[in-house]
Amino acid sequence: MPNLPILLRVLDIFRIGPGPSSSHTVGPMRATRRFRERCIGLGLVPSRVEVELLGSLAATGRGHGTDRAVLAGLLGWEPETVDPDAFAGLMERLDRVPAIPWGAGYVAIRTTDVIWRRGGKRDLPHPNTLVVRAYGDRGVLLEETWCSIGGGFVRREGGENDAAPAPLSPPIAPFHDGDSLVEIGKQFGSIGAAILANEAAWERHPGEVAAGLDAVVAAFERCIARGLRSRGVLPGGLGVRRRAPELLESLEAGRVPDFWRHIALAQAYAYAVNEENAAGGLVVTAPTNGASGIFPAVLIEAMRRLGVDRAAMHRALATGAGIAMVVKTYASLSGAEVGCQGEVGTATAMAAAALTELLGGSPDAVETAAEIGLEHNLGLTCDPIRGLVQAPCIERNAMGVAKAWSAAMLALNAGGKGIVSLDKVVRVMKRTGDDMMREYKETSEGGLAVAFPEC
Ligand code: SF4
Predict the structure, then answer these.
(1) pLDDT in tens, 203-256
(2) pTM for the complete prediction?
(3) Are residues 116 and 233 in the same domain?
(4) Which residue among 23, 343, 348, 380 has the greatest number of ligand 1 atoms within 8 angstroms of its CB, and so is best to mutate?
(5) Is the same domain home to 265 and 151?
(6) Which of 159, 165, 268, 384 could form a disulfide with 247 if both were Cys (CB 3.0 to 4.6 A apart)?
(7) Coil, helix or strand at residue 105
(8) What residues have CB less than 8 Å from 380, skipping those under 6 apart?
(9) pLDDT band at residue 123 using 50, 70 and 90 as cut-offs
C-alpha cells in the first residue's frame, strides 16, 4: 500500500481556545456548536436540547468545565473568539435565564440538561464521547454522537471529521512519517521550511497562513504576560496557588542562582500559560491545552534571547507542528487515549525540535531532539487530581521545558543519529498507551488522582 501524505496544517495543531482542556473543553464546545449549526441548517427548532457526557468526559469533565463548554457550543460560541469573561459567567447566566437564542427564536436549556453518565457503558467509539439530542413535542428530532479525539479535534460518528480539512492542491513537500519529514527537510533547507511550503496547499488568499502564525505567537505572548501578573488561587477547590508571578519575582530579585536563570525564566512562562489554562483563560493548543505551556515557554524565551526574526519564528512553529503531525498520525495527542506521554511527551518533542532548528540544527538533529523529548516521557500517565488540569499538569509542563531544553542541547552535540528514530519512539508510545490501564488515561481513577480523593 502506498504511503499517504500527512494532510494536516500548522494551524490544526496550534488552535486558540479557552482552558482548561482541548479534549474536554475545546473539542466538546466545537461538537455542540456543529450540532447547533446542523439543527438550524435543517430548520429544526427543538423545544429543548440535552447533552450526555460519557467515558472520560463524564469522569473528569467537571474539573475541566465540560458542561460549560458544551453549553457555550450550543450558544454558537467558538473557541477561538469566545469572550473569556462571558465564558466564565455562563453557568450563572443560564441558571438565571435558562434559554439560548436559536435561529429566529429561543430554545429552553438548563445547566442540568448536561448529563454525566459515569461508568456503565464501556464500548464507546472513543474514550471522550458525547451524545447531543434535540427534542421536539413528539420526541427526538436529531441525535448525534461526537468524539473529542484530542488537541481540540472532533469527529462525528458516521459523519464529518474536522481533523483534516482537504487541501486545495497537492502539498509541495509531501511526507508521511518522521523519516520522510527529515528527507523533505533536507531538500527544503529545514523541516520548518518544508512544512511551511506545504501550507500553500491550504491557503485561500496570500498572507493567510503568515497572519495565522502571527496570531499564534501573539496569543502565546499575551497568555504569558497575563499569567505572569495574575495571582491568587486557581478555581476548582484544590487550593493550587498561582506560582508564575512568584518565580518571576525571585528571578528579578536575584534569588535564583545564575546557572538556573535561563531555564527558570522559561519555566515561569510555562507556569504562566498553564495557570491561565487552569483558570479558563485563552491559550493555544500546543498540541493540547493541558500541555500548552512547554512550547510557548521555550519558543518565546528563545526568541527573546536569540533575537529571532518573524520568518524564523514561523519556521520554528512549523517544525514543532510537523512533529505533532507525525505523532497524531501514528499514535495520539490525547491523554484519554495514550496518557500524558501523548500530551506533555509530544509538547516536549515539539519544543525540543523547534529550539534545535532555531539554533541552526540540521533536520537530522531536529529529529533527534524530538525523539529524545518523546523517549524520556514514554509511559507517562494521565492522572489529574480531581480531574482539574492543575496537579500534576502545571508543574509537569515546567519540567517539560527543562527536558526540551536539554534534548536540544544533547541533539546538537550528539555527533550523529542515535539508534532510536522518531518513528520508532512514536510507535512505542502508541503501544505503551494501548497497554496502559484505563485508570491512567484521564479518568482520575488512578495514580496521583486517587492519592488525593475528592473530599
Ligand atoms: S496529566 Fe498530562 S495528559 Fe493528563 S490532563 Fe494533565 S497535562 Fe493533560
Answers:
(1) 988 899 999 999 999 999 999 999 999 999 999 999 999 999 999 999 999 999
(2) 0.90
(3) no
(4) 343
(5) no
(6) 268
(7) strand
(8) 339, 340, 341, 344, 345
(9) confident
Ligand 1: distance of its center to the CA of 441 in Å?
9
Angle at which helices 363-375 and 422-435 cross, to 10°: 20
Residue 214, CA distances (Å) to 317, 359, 451 in order? 10, 21, 42
Q: Is residue 399 domain-resident?
A: yes
Domain enclosing residue 376, as ranges = 178-451
Q: Are residues 152 and 294 located together in one domain of the fold?
A: no
Return the CATH number at 101: 3.30.1330.90
Q: Is there a single domain that holds both residue 400 and residue 299? A: yes
pLDDT tens digit sequence for 314-371: 999 999 999 999 999 999 999 999 999 999 999 999 999 999 999 999 999 999 999 9
- CA dist list (Å): 298 to 144, 306, 320, 377: 40, 12, 11, 17
CB of 447 sitting under 6 A from ligand 1: no
Please give the distance, rounded to the nearest whole angstrom, from the Cα atom of residue 80 to the centre of ligand 1: 22
Q: Is residue 275 part of a domain?
A: yes
343 lines ligand 1 (CB under 6 A): yes
CB of residue 345 inside a 6 A radius of ligand 1: no
The answer to whether residues 278 and 386 belong to one domain is: yes
Number of domains in the chain: 2
Task: Using most ligand atoms within 8 A of CB, pick from 442, 443, 444, 452 the residue to mutate for ligand 1.
Answer: 442
Contact 445 CB / ligand 1 (< 6 Å):
no
Question: Which numbered atom of ligand 1 lies nearest the CA of 442?
Answer: 4
The CATH number of residue 318's host domain is 1.10.4100
Cα torsion angle, 444, 449, 450, 455, sign: negative
Cβ(344) to ligand 1 under 6 A?
A: yes
Q: Look at the block and give the residue holding cell 469522569.
A: 59
Quickly list DSSP for 265-299. Answer: HHHHHHHHHHHHHHTT-EEE-SS-STT-SHHHHHH
Whether 282 and 396 map to the same domain: the answer is: yes
Which residue owns the Cα nearest ligand 1 atom 6?
393
Alpha-carbon torsion angle 90, 94, 95, 99, nearest 10: 180
How far, in whole angstroms, is CA 69 from its chain's centroid? 15
The closest alpha carbon to 224, from 303, 139, 326, belongs to 303
